[in-house]
């Protein structure tokens, strides 16, 4: 069975699990280790990770994990986010799924 896993900071421990999804919580210092363990599970096909935790992982390392994993790694934006950053993230995600760049007008 294919699974979607949400990885969030400890302060969001009840959000996704209340909706019936699998949610793991961690402190930023352990985020990379938990992410690596999660993506090594062959039943996991989508990991949604809190943006605050992604910031604690070296960007080159995060990109490497994203590139080499067979599943989809999605960053969950924080509530207060700059629209330009969101657009860049959406463009990267669409480019990865479609295989080429698409210009978005929001």
Descriptors for this entry?
globular; alpha/beta; single chain; 106 residues; four-stranded parallel beta sheet; 4 helices; Rossmann fold
SSE diagram, text form:
Blueprint: E1 3-9, E2 22-26, H1 31-39, E3 44-50, H2 51-54, H3 59-68, E4 72-76, H4 83-98
Parallel strand pairs: 1-2, 1-3, 3-4
Produce a short descriptive summary.
This protein is an alpha/beta fold and 106 residues long. It has helices at residues 31-39, 51-54, 59-68, 83-98, and strands at residues 3-9, 22-26, 44-50, 72-76. A four-stranded parallel β-sheet has the order 2-1-3-4.
Tell me about this structure:
The radius of gyration is 14 Å and the shape is globular. It has a four-stranded parallel beta sheet. The chain has one domain (3-77): ATPase, V1 complex, subunit F (Rossmann fold, 3-Layer(aba) Sandwich). It has 106 residues and is of the alpha/beta class. 37% of the residues lie in helices and 23% in strands. The protein has four helices and four strands.
Helix content: 25-40%
- CATH architecture, by name, is 3-Layer(aba) Sandwich
Helix-strand pattern: EEHEHHEH
CA(first)-CA(last) distance: 35 Å
Strand content is: 15-25%
C-alpha Rg (nearest Å): 14 Å
Average the pLDDT over all residues and give the rounded result: 81
CATH topology: Rossmann fold
Shape: globular
Number of domains: 1
Can you count the helices?
4
Specify the biggest β-sheet: 4 strands, parallel
CATH class (first level) name: Alpha Beta
User: What's the count of strands?
Assistant: 4
SSE class: alpha/beta
How are the strands ordered across the major sheet?
Answer: 2-1-3-4
Name given to the CATH homologous superfamily? ATPase, V1 complex, subunit F
Low-confidence segments, given as residue ranges, are none
